[in-house]
Each structure stands twice: as structure tokens, then as C-alpha cells.
């Protein structure tokens, strides 16, 4: 599995389109166990990102690309999720600066740094029914043999049954059991697109 700057750029453009398709679904979930803005937040951020990326030549540096993505998402997504998605890419940039492609340990190290960055920034850990419950198993799966798509589906299914103990959803207590976490779903949309370019 190898991630090039060009492939990540394509995965992000694909994510922007897929977010538009699932925007209402994301917002409806956030209406059930949040404040009903997650689809709107993600759509705003990824449409801004799409504009930013489309106006640029294809990137040759994963660090440069990741930094631009992180800054754009932090500026435009808003909510609790904006700084967290932004952190993912700022951390990628810190590990992948100057690299046109990463694989093996370098690929894993970027994701590991991202997951730890989100946990630190969100003062959160796995098991609290947040985006981390998808990012963490995905990251570990980069070193395993199981297909990434399967790992994502299983992580989403497991997260759905958890009780939220972090973020806005935690105020809904037991009512969150059986409802998908919106940030876990949006993370799965992004990670599926990354998995696709990693496999291709
Ligand atoms: P807000 O809750 O401010 O309206 P969003 O609706 O955009 O922000 O994002 C909510 C999502 O952010 C949740 O579904 C969850 O996955 C994620 N999230 C919120 N707080 C945290 C946290 N402390 N750590 C990790 N993820 C979090
Ligand atoms: Mg919200
Ligand atoms: Mg909000």
C-alpha cells in the first residue's frame, strides 16, 4: 500500500463529492444526537477544500498538500469536528513533509500521529463513540492483512452501538446507543476514499 500526493488529492476531491451525497444523512444523525449541523459543517469545509485544490497544480509533496488541507478544514468546517479533522492533516504534514509518496512504516506513522493528535486535541480516547473509533482501527489495519473496507464497516457498526461519553452527543446518554455517530460516519467517508486510492 502506497499513498502518493496525487492519490491523496484525488481521494479528497472524491470525499468532497461523497459528503455532498450524504450531507443530509450526516445532519440528520447530528440532529438525533447533537445540534444538527455536522453535514452542513463538513459540506462547507470540503467544498472550500475542493475549490482550493482545483485551482492548484497537482501536488508533489504530501506535506505541502496535507498542510493546506489541514488549514482549510480548520478555517471552514467549524464546530468540534473542524479542529479535529484539521489536526489529522496537520499531523500528516508533520510526518510526510517533503515526501512525494509514503508506504509501510511511514504511512502508518502519519496515521498514528494523526490519531494521537485528535485524541490529545479532543481529550478523548477510543470507546467514547467519536470519530476516533473509526480512525484508530483503520490506522492499526494499515499494518494488518484485513481489507481496509471491511475494517471501516466493522468499526462503524461497532461504534453505532456505543454510548457516547464525549462531545455534544454525551448529553444524550443512553439514547445514543444504536444511533450512528455523525463524525464516525464522515470519517468513514474520507477513509473509504483513502482506502480506495491505497488499493488502486
Ligand atoms: P459540534 O458537535 O460542535 O456541532 P460537529 O457536529 O461538526 O461539531 O461534529 C460532531 C462530531 O465530532 C461527533 O460526531 C464526533 O465524532 C466528533 N467529536 C466531537 N467531540 C470530540 C472529541 N472530543 N474527540 C473526538 N471526536 C469528537
Ligand atoms: Mg454538530
Ligand atoms: Mg455545532
TrEMBL record:
InterPro entries: DhaK_L_YcgS, DhaL_dom, DhaL_dom_sf, Dihydroxyacetone_Kinase
Keyword Nucleotide-binding: no
Key words, A-Z: Coiled coil, Kinase, Transferase
SUPFAM superfamilies: DhaL-like
Domain DhaL positions: 6-196
Residue stretches in coiled coil: 5-32
MF GO annotations: kinase activity
Protein name as catalogued: Dihydroxyacetone kinase subunit DhaL
Native source organism of the sequence: Fictibacillus terranigra
Gene expressing this chain: dhaL
